[in-house]
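Let's practice the habit of predicting before peeking. Look at the sequence and jot down your guess about where helices and strands might fall. Then scroll down.
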Amino acid sequence: MLELNAVIFDMDGLMIDTEPVGNMLVKTSHEKFGYKITDDMFVHLIGSNEKTSKEYYYSVFGEDYPYQKIKDYREQLRNEYFKTHPIEVKKGLYDLLEYLKKNHIKMAVASSTRYERVLSNLKSIKVDQYFDAIIGGDQIKHGKPAPDIFLKAVELLEVNKEDALVLEDSRNGILAAHAGKIPVICIPDLIHHSKDILDLTVGCYDSLDQLIDVIVKKDDKA
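Done guessing? Here is the structure:
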């Protein structure tokens, strides 16, 4: 059992099933402008914030890469897609949130997605009220795999790092939590990670509801 005072959630691929859609949108928007995004390139960027992604694209495609044009087109495609496709919630999310709430365990979202969209997505699936803190990738200097966003979450929740737990699906997210010395559990999404990545975690589970039997509230008086 893990005795905790706080749980920090990633969002895309962990709480909501948006990574396959993201993959499609990234590839389609780049194809329009004559660029090809491979599966390996997309996987490399999972969990990265906008600043990190932008730097990566320029490093791969050169200084003539039309970042803003591709980004604007991708946003157009995204808006059109979600007009007719509701955001799908990952298995066990609502059950886990209710369990943590009833047991007075603090909760935060720490996502590489910009804050405005994080909040919009959380409201769309009606879970924003569960969280004591919400942090977007545009609110920190260094994105995952740097630990900044998780360290900020711990600070806002006013808990010790060893009493918190990060839930992540991505390699970059796991590396970020490990770098910040915060325990992390992996709930795989698109990628099943290699042993060297899983060795950085305190566990790997198939769905969020499985954590109900793993997490208990820490007794601060002990």
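How did you do? The chain has a mean pLDDT of 94.
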